[in-house]
Amino acid sequence: MLWIAAALASDVLLVHGHVWDGSGAPAASADVWVHDDRVQAVGAGLGVPPGATILDASGATVLPGLIDAHVHLSMDPGAGWRHDDDATHAAQVRAHLAAYLACGVTTVLDPAVLPAEEARIRALLADGAPGPRYLSLGAPFSPPGGYVAAVIPGFPTVSNRAEVEAQLDGLLRDGDVGAKVTVERGFLVNRYPLHSPEVFGAIRAGATARNLPIYAHAISPEEQSIALDWLHPRAMVHAMERPDVRLVRQLRAAGTYTITTLAIADAFAAATDLGRLADPFLDARVPASELITARDPEVARGFSEALLQEMLPGLARWVAGPGFMRAALRSHVAEANAAIRALRAGGVPLVLGSDAGNWPLIPYLFHGPSTLRELELLHTAGLTPAEALTAGTRTAAEMLELPLGRITVGSPADLVVVEGDPLSDLRAMRAVRWTVRAGEARTPAGWMGG
Ligand SMILES: [Zn+2]
């Protein structure tokens, strides 16, 4: 019942923890006093405010709550292989929101969601469902026949200035924090058209006039160059292909952030390694229906086939040998890791994004655990644990221009308390003792049960 007591108190004192405050300073022993939904004080030996709930953080590290800057909350992993009815979908969305908190994620950015789904998610949260701060870019700007509209039915397209203006007004109406624009020719082969110069110009001018930063979905160096020239984006929403030196310099000079999404290629590889899904950590955080889909070998075969079709449309996939998929995925992972290293070396600011939910046919990008996987993959790619955590806290908050991602006096009390020392081993982030969301502290089970 501890979490209920914490929920009712207006003062929470986390004592005897190691505090990593996101400032760049090393972790140090300190207490953190939370008053209502703000951090009131940070320091050694803070006095106990009368009536405060005291949470003993001995042996634990206190960090700013994680920010995942690329999640698709309207999409249920593996839904493309099931026939979920609307009530089931709503229950899964609710479970995903709680799973983020159980994984220490207190803010998410959803870069592609239809207005009706976005309204449903906001209504759930407004109704008291436990969940992270939900920020969104609404529906992306796709050309007719282009990515993402061609892949996911129901998403709109824009082909002229009037349509661009109307969609931008919709973003303002829905409270979205930016505009996502696709600049995507295709995965291994060119198959999608790009926006016309007129539409690129209209998006940039219209978004600037409305003070909406642009997030560009652009993968290849050529697509990213086009995006930089036409859109002046706040961020690139993926890092999947190694940029050349010139592009890295341009990204740095423009102050463009890169959202990492290493978890995508990693999740594709799960189809060829189902054994790693036998993990009790997942059972405690992922809806059972999604785990049944993900652990089904038939689904893995179907998913591999669908992926091959996306990579090699037409006849080419019939001549691709059985080793093609494994080799393609291996080189995809190596390429994405090389991209992260090149961006890091060039001083381009990196922001954690997992792409959880991504595509209804992908059963492996679970909401919540994927964020923690992304942290670990960033470390594998070459970031230190502190750099990976900074990508998922302070740098993400800077990109979003929000006073989050730090533990300072007056900052919103979004915190995560984990067992041990994630700065020497990021897997400690899986052992959440409490997540504090807007001043309310609960255990993972407390959030999942709420
Ligand atoms: Zn995505």
Structural features, described:
There is one protein chain. The chain is an alpha/beta fold and 450 residues long. It folds into two domains: 2-64 and 408-449, Roll (Urease, subunit C, domain 1), CATH 2.30.40; 66-268 and 323-400, Metal-dependent hydrolases (TIM Barrel, Alpha-Beta Barrel). It has 17 helices and 16 strands. It has helices at 2-8, 86-102, 115-126, 161-174, 197-209, 221-231, 245-254, 263-270, 280-283, 288-294, 297-311, 316-319, 323-345, 369-381, 385-391, 394-400, 444-449, and strands spanning 11-19, 28-35, 38-43, 53-56, 60-64, 66-68, 105-110, 133-136, 179-183, 214-218, 235-236, 257-259, 350-351, 415-419, 432-437, 440-442. The strands form three sheets. Strands 1, 2, 3, 4, 5, 14, 15 and 16 form an eight-stranded mixed β-sheet that branches. A five-stranded parallel β-sheet has the order 9-10-11-12-13, sandwiched between helices. The chain has a three-stranded parallel β-sheet with strand order 6-7-8, covered by helices on one side. The longest helix has 23 residues, at 323-345. The two termini are 12 Å apart.
